Amino acid sequence: MSVKIVVGTQWGDEGKGKIIDLLSEQADVVARYQGGANAGHTVVVKGEKTILHLVPSGILHENTVCMIGNGVVIDPKALLDEIGFLELQGVSVQERLLISHSAHLIMPYHKMLDQAKESKDADKKIGTTGRGIGPAYVDKVNRMGIRVVDLLDRATFIEKLERNVVEKNEVLRKIYGAEEMDVEQIVQDYLDYGTRIAPYVNDVSTCVMDAIADSKQVLLEGAQGTLLDIDFGTYPFVTSSSPTSGGACSGVGIGPTCIDSVLGVIKAYTTRVGMGPFPTEMHDDDIDLRQLGDEFGATTGRPRRCGWFDAVIANYAVRVNGLSSFVLTKLDVLDTLDEIKICVAYKYDEDTITAFPSEVRVLQDCVPVYETLPGWKTSTTGARAFDDLPDNARTYIRRIETLTGAPISIVSVGSDRAQTIVVS
Ligand code: GDP
Ligand code: IMO
Ligand code: MG
């Protein structure tokens, strides 16, 4: 039996989709534990790209069962569209996807509220994906949410919906000056989604525990990343769930004693989409990591902000996730550079600090302290063993291990499933 959590260690888009797909070769079960269709997880197999938002990234392996845990907020339309798209591509999803009956639903008013809030407070914008994530988790915590199981019972669904729409319409009209929602249309649309989703609904917590009891290999798939965590991220510039490893147990319904290891996916540099502090961000540099790394959002297409590798963040991710090891991705993006920088500390006022600051106000004023390493100026995209890598690339990897105290168990040198080096 092995239960592994795969977690993003920066601001998301570290390449979790590629790594989950790769590890799914050996996995019996892959279960998503938080977030929603704000995620965009890319899997490339023999040049063919698939972007997943809600369906776990193990779906391309036909022997793997995929589950969506109670910690996820599900937009049923987005999910059904995704299932339809996968089936069209020849991926069989029916019989292989289970959806937790206790996952909360994203409703049309969640998306309206998300977008209205972002437009109203333009100067306090978070830069959300506009997928209704924050408002859906607000309703969950406020005990107003509508869950997957409610979709299966017409009377319960209508009762809960009406209560919500009365409240949301008032907020939409009075606070945002927006149009009110029509209950009838939502009832019609959602009961139809309910009928189509019903065959997938199950008790995911019990199913994961059964798999563990049967000595199956289980992967728990995180979305977003450590620095977007509602508690440990750069609050308020975060998402509204717990992407860190702690969220995995409550997000699928198993106990912490079931977990064997935690894998942290980390890019060989750093990116961020949306607003908020980012100490190593490059502004007017000659080096265009966005172009080199094709850094455009998989969900919204927005250009990602880019910067050097930040070991302060990496260390923080080791601590708050209890990482067993790192998976280093996109090493190949640095192939052409003469020199590569690693941020090893921050300068704040007169102090040099290596602990990640808890206040965004402090982080905003932190100036990175860099160490410069020589580039390797050789393509790494064909490397399949650690020893195939150029000396300077190996030095870069070893330096990250030393700075973080965590081993790097896998190195990714291209977007394709095959472009991977298993180190240990
Ligand atoms: P996720 O949200 O963590 O799953 O990451 P995304 O899929 O949003 O973004 C990662 C992007 O990098 C995708 O376009 C991947 O296909 C691509 N990618 C993943 N690993 C590598 C790699 O090692 N090298 C290169 N060049 N691209 C990669
Ligand atoms: P994956 O799983 C990168 C960011 C948004 C915004 C903040 C809040 O592909 O790594 P939200 O819509 O969640 O309320 O937005 O979080 N964000 C992501 N950034 N990758 C993601 O997911 C993200 N999901 C949300 O850009 O800054
Ligand atoms: Mg992504």
Structural class: alpha/beta
Which molecules are bound in this entry? guanosine-5'-diphosphate, 6-O-phosphoryl inosine monophosphate, magnesium ion
- Could you tell me the CATH topology label of the largest domain: Adenylosuccinate Synthetase, Chain A, domain 1
CATH superfamily of the largest domain: Adenylosuccinate Synthetase, subunit A, domain 1
Number of helices: 13
Number of domains: 3
Q: What is the topology, as strand order, of the major beta sheet?
A: 9-7-5-2-10-1-11-15-19-20
Radius of gyration: 22 Å
Low-pLDDT segments, ≥5 res? none
Distance between the termini: 19 Å
Shape: globular
Beta strand count: 20
Largest sheet: 10 strands, mixed
Strand content bin: 15-25%
Q: What would CATH call the architecture of the largest domain?
A: 3-Layer(aba) Sandwich
At the first level of CATH, the class of the largest domain is Alpha Beta
Q: Classify the helix fraction into a percent range.
A: 25-40%
What average pLDDT do the residues reach?
Answer: 96
